[in-house]
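Question (not urgent): is this output format expected?
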Amino acid sequence: MSNMSNFYQDVISIDPRFTSVDRINDPMLLEPVTQSAVRNIIASAAQQGINLIVFETYRSQNRQAALFAQGATTLQTVGVHHYGLAADLVCLVSGEPSWRPSYAFLGPLAEANGLVWGGNWAEPNVLHSFVDMDHVQRIAVDMQPQLFAGTFYPDNGYNPFSPTLA
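Got this back:
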């Protein structure tokens, strides 16, 4: 699939923020299916009285390296955020982003909208060494190596919960 046009090649790789070290929370840097799912999650959370914001969408390798150097992450290499397929959604408490509330509500909302939640990586019965409670993404963990290698990018019909690729 690497020869096919995709959002990463068509939009992200040519965006002037591609190498930025700044936190970027622009939903327009989420591929369209992911962007729609994130908007639906935020709306569904609001119906439950939970005020969510898009805290980060696109992340460059330069930003990831800076976060790693600061000790803010244990991941040295940027992941799914780099491809427009992931977002961090954070609760607003008294008008400020907060990571204190429980993010357990995010799992069912993510799955209902076709996204994998970083709280269990679509494997609720597995103990994960890396948990990212405010993170959602539109790619199965086992497909990430192909994404990073440039041999796979999900099309509009891709379902991260389905073991088969259409």
